[in-house]
Amino acid sequence: MGKEKTHVNIVVIGHVDSGKSTTTGHLIYKCGGIDKRTIEKFEKEAAEMGKGSFKYAWVLDKLKAERERGITIDIALCKFETSKFYVSIIDAPGHRDFIKNMITGTSQADCAVLIVAAGVGEFEAGISKNGQTREHALLAFTLGVKQMIVGVNKMDSTEPPYSEARFNEISSEVSTYVKKVGYNPKSVAFVPISGWHGDNMIEASSKMPWYKGWNKEVKEGKFSGKTLVEALDSIIPPSRPSNKPLRLPLQDVYKIGGIGTVPVGRVETGIIRPGMVATFAPSQLTTEVKS
């Protein structure tokens, strides 16, 4: 039996249409969180609605209303594995109207992945005073998410495509901003990616020969790598005291047909396992853990 992997929670944040859901969906697909048949089904449905480029995002955008508007309304929870961690991804909405949902999701995360779009004019719109890039980074830090990875997305749509100068310009500007917010830029990995084509997501891309990889320095040591998944593997998992009583702040309650009511949250202390008896506060309702 191999050693049980540690769980980490990440939140994917960034301006509307920066490619958060597509990047996240592609990652989940590549890391085996969803099968090829499902992706093909999404591809067909997306094409029928004239939104062919949304197939990966649809892994997350399960609500019909979201599919038709093409934006992420609620926080979607998906899981996949890396070589080191079990990762739960919370994909937070980028639309200003949905900021309240984004706060709920972010407060549960151990690390934030900030997606910024490198396309012409897109980065500028996101980082502007009216964009959500700044707001999301500030919210993440304020809500206690002290680790960050920056995915510079849509590298395929820079001028010229996969431009080193554009990546450096964006990295430098985002570095300055996240420092103002409270992050130490030295501890942040900047990864040039294409969430749609998959560049530097799992495998190093051949389209950016200039890219030598990301480096980060934290008190636990120095880390380096090339891809987004390697950056995820460099997250320092928080210590969750398992010898203390169970404390699990609830984030949401789902009603799932054929299963019933499923509470969702993050175990902060203690452990949870089938057969345990748990009590909800403040109602003092007691129930048995099923799975």
UniProtKB/TrEMBL annotation:
Keyword Protein biosynthesis: yes
Residues that span the membrane, as ranges: none
Keyword flag GTP-binding: yes
Entries under Gene3D superfamilies matching the protein: P-loop containing nucleotide triphosphate hydrolases, Translation factors
Entry keyword set: Elongation factor, GTP-binding, Nucleotide-binding, Protein biosynthesis
Pfam annotation, one family: GTP_EFTU
Superkingdom of this protein's organism: Eukaryota
GO-annotated molecular function: GTP binding; GTPase activity; translation elongation factor activity
Residues covered by the Tr-type G domain: 5-242
Protein's recorded name: Elongation factor-1 alpha 2
